Amino acid sequence: MVDSSRTFLITGCWLSSILTVLFLAAGCSTTSDSNQSMETPDSDVSTSNQSMENPASDVSTSSQSMETPDSDVSASSQLIDPEVSPIPVTEITWTSCYQVYECGDLEVPLDYANPSGESINIGLIRISASVSPSLGPLLINFGGPGASGTEIVHLYGSMWEYSFPEFDVIGFDPRGVGQSTQVNCPNDLDDDIEWILEDGEDVEDLFTEARLHVKECLDMSGDLALHVGTNNVARDMDQIRLALGEEQITYLGYSYGTRIGAVYASLFPDHVRAMILDGAVAPSEQISAFSPVQGLGFENAWNRFAKSCDEDTNCILNEFGGAENAFSIADELLSESNLNVSVSGLNAMDGRELTRSEFQIGTASALYSPYSWPALVDGLYSIITNADGSIHQFFADQLAGRNEDGTYNNSQSVLFLVNCADDPLRPSDEEIASAIDAVADQLPHFGPSFRGDTGCAGLDEALDPLHIGQADLDVPALVISMEGDPATPLEWGPDLVESMGSAVLITSDGDGHGAFLTNSECVTDVVFDYLLELTVPENGWSCEEP
What angle do CA 464, 250, 503 make, to 5 degrees? Predict the structure, then answer.
């Protein structure tokens, strides 16, 4: 059975998988020494809440004729200006958590067009500056949609303390996520769900299932499902700023977090001190755009991985004629039957099998960082020589948000509902199927995993679709793109800069999703100069990784 609610990728991904790989590769702890033995608050989000982000993007030829809505700010966006229609600001009650940090909740309106109506909570964590005077709050978002800011700031607290002593580092869970008021959909994604379709297969049942899935999402999530879009996340950010009593914030957004930042900059430009947008997502990237660009980004990343392996005489995949042949052999094996997954070293894996769809998704997940390429080599080798799919199962589980106890977090629910809340269009089932098929035809490795996408079928039109307009910033935003980024391809960087107006783009020739403090060394000094001194690099600056 195909899970009709799933799309293979997302607008970006969150950073926790990349950070985990980096810290493990370096032999470092992922928390500060003072945190390792401490009791942590209850959380529905596990450390493996990684997911790739959805091809909620790009414009295929089949969708170019669709009428695009006007880019003016929506009516509900106009209501947000505090000087025009003040929104009541509640206080954040900070309490000690993880021994050395502070956690809190902020009450915000469910619907900013009705600020006196129902409210929801936004979960927060703060690591106070260790330098005085400080440079104020640094809000961080790690992508998704669906990444938990409170969890990742806590888990990698030692890195933020070391990297940003001048700032009060603020992690927040966007509405719908983690410690904030959640949205939920049915999400039992284990082996009984198949995500692959071959060319020509009938998709009518998929759309029937999609509508049932939407009904269940709305039943489980209530009105929040309709108000979980990025515009409201940006408004929540400004409520955080007001509750902190700050005139301006500094912002670091990765992947989908670049979209949040761009919306915030267009709605609240006077309140931006500096803004780093790493792993840019183009504003045109919507589910209904049906573009191949992100899928081709993963194909490009695979090709770069394969070239690296083929040029390495020690790469064990050369035993099969190279990485490309190894992929074909493994994919063929899995088209014939599922593979066993060993329990050793993996929790809650007993009785599971690796499916072909999980193989393709696991391969794509491993392309998020070159630090995981050696594990991808081992995974392919293990499939071919031992019929063991454990490594690929691990990577696929990271993407799907599977917890150690075998349950799933709500990241896929957030992904689906946020992307659809942002998308202004609702094409017909026939248009969706035709456009997705055209995209899949261009993706030799990952195409079958795209064909089961049913877009936003079953959901009514968005109440408050995405708004990214020109941003009149005192200090231009710093946008970062990587040549080998699979999830947010290099092509999206210039599009984001153009849409914002007040922004500059820097690039690296490196591989992986996300640059600053993750997969790039050569951008580090330039980004810190911008962050601390507000030194803006020349638009188009680029570097080569050592």
Answer: 70
